[in-house]
Write a structure and sequence with these properties.
Elements (H helix, E strand, L loop, with lengths): L3 E5 L20 E2 L2 E2 H11 L4 E6 L4 H6 L4 H7 L9 H9 L1 E6 L6 H7 L1 H4 L4 E4 L3 E4 L5 H12 L2 E7 L9 E9 L2 E9 L10 E9 L2 H7 L11 H11 L2 E5 L3 E4 L3 H14 L7
Parallel strand pairs: 1-4, 1-6, 4-5, 8-12
Antiparallel strand pairs: 2-3, 6-11, 7-13, 8-11, 9-10, 9-11, 10-12
Length: about 280
C-alpha cells in the first residue's frame, strides 16, 4: 500500500538567515500559508495521508502547525477570521502525522534513511518542501503515484534545465519508454556541464521502494561528504527499473531567495487574489 509520504525538514535554511535563525525555513509563509503546508496538501491530494517528518532541533513550529490551537480557535470562534483556519483544519482531520529527528545533517540520503523508522517496509512518497509545485490538473505527487500504481516501479520527477544550471541538480539520462517517461540508465549528483549525461534534472518529488533503505545503508558518502540519494537510486537502477517522469506543472525553487519571491508573487496573483486559502 502506498499511503505514506516523507518530508525531510531538518535543514538549517542558512540562505534565509537571519529569518531562519529561530524559525524553520519550512514555516516561511508563501503569502498566507507556510511552505511546508503546500507540500502536505499535495501529498494528501495524491492519497498519501500518513505524513512523516524527519526534523531537527528548532523545528517544533512544524509540529504545532499541524495540531489544534485551542486558545487561538477559542479567541476567533464566531468571527469572520474563523474562516482562515478552514484549510488547515481539514488537513489536520485528513492526515495522520508522525516525526523522528535527524541528529546530524549528512545529506538527503541520510535524512531518508532516518525516516525508515516511520516508513517501515512499504513504498512511500518523498516531498522536498523547497520545491513548490503547481499544476492546474493533478499535482506532481499525484502524477508520480499514478505511475507507480500502474508500473510498480520507483519513479522520480524530472524537468529540463538550462545547461548552465545542471550543476545545481541531480541529473539523469535514460531511455524514453513513453512520452515524458524514461527508464533511468545513469544518474549524477550536481555534475559540471561538460560531465552531465543530459539536462534532465531531478526535483524534489519521489515515490520510492522500501529497498532504498538497504541501499542507503551501504552507500558511502559522496559529494560534500554526504550520503546522496542519487547514488542509491543509481545502484537501484542497475539492478531494477527506476523511472523518471517529466512532470506536468510549474516548479519554484523556494530554497533560494529569488525563487521564493517568484513563488510568492505567483501565489498572490494566481491563487490568493482568486480567493484561495
Amino acid at each position: 500500500m502506498l499511503k505514506k509520504c516523507l518530508f525531510p525538514v531538518a535543514g538549517y535554511g542558512t540562505r534565509f538567515l537571519p529569518a531562519t535563525k529561530a524559525m524553520p525555513k519550512e514555516m516561511l509563509p508563501v503569502v498566507n500559508k507556510p511552505l511546508v503546508q503546500y507540500g502536505v496538501e499535495e501529498a494528501l491530494a495524491a492519497g498519501l495521508d500518513e505524513i512523516c517528518f524527519v526534523t531537527g532541533r528548532g523545528k517544533r513550529a512544524i509540529h504545532d502547525h499541524f495540531d489544534i490551537s485551542y486558545e487561538l480557535e477559542h479567541q476567533i470562534a464566531g468571527t469572520d477570521k474563523e474562516s482562515y483556519l478552514v484549510g488547515i483544519r481539514e488537513i489536520i482531520q485528513r492526515g495522520r502525522f508522525a516525526s523522528t529527528r535527524q541528529l546530524e545533517m549528512k545529506g538527503l540520503g541520510h535524512a531518508i534513511l532516518t525516516g525508515e523508522l516511520l516508513i517501515g517496509n512499504q513504498p512511500f512518497g518523498v516531498v522536498l518542501a523547497d520545491d513548490l509545485c503547481f499544476n492546474e490538473g493533478p499535482g506532481v505527487m499525484e502524477q508520480l503515484v499514478a505511475i507507480y500504481r500502474r508500473t510498480g516501479n520507483t519513479v522520480i520527477a524530472i524537468q529540463e534545465v538550462a545547461e548552465e544550471d545542471v550543476s545545481k541538480f541531480g541529473i539523469v539520462a535514460g531511455e524514453e519508454v513513453e512520452p515524458g517517461l524514461y527508464r533511468v540508465t545513469d544518474m549524477v549528483e550536481k555534475p559540471q556541464p561538460d560531465q552531465a549525461p543530459s539536462n534532465l534534472a531531478i526535483i524534489g518529488r519521489y515515490v520510492l521502494s522500501p529497498f532504498i533503505f538497504e541501499l542507503l545503508r551501504h552507500t558511502p558518502p559522496g559529494k560534500n561528504g554526504e550520503i546522496q540519494l542519487t547514488d542509491a537510486l543509481l545502484a537501484l537502477a542497475r539492478t531494477s527499473k527506476v523511472l523518471a517522469y517529466k512532470f506536468q506543472g510549474r516548479r519554484f525553487d523556494c530554497g533560494s531567495v529569488g525563487g521564493f519571491v517568484e513563488a510568492t508573487n505567483h501565489v498572490y496573483q494566481n491563487v490568493y487574489q482568486r480567493g484561495g486559502r
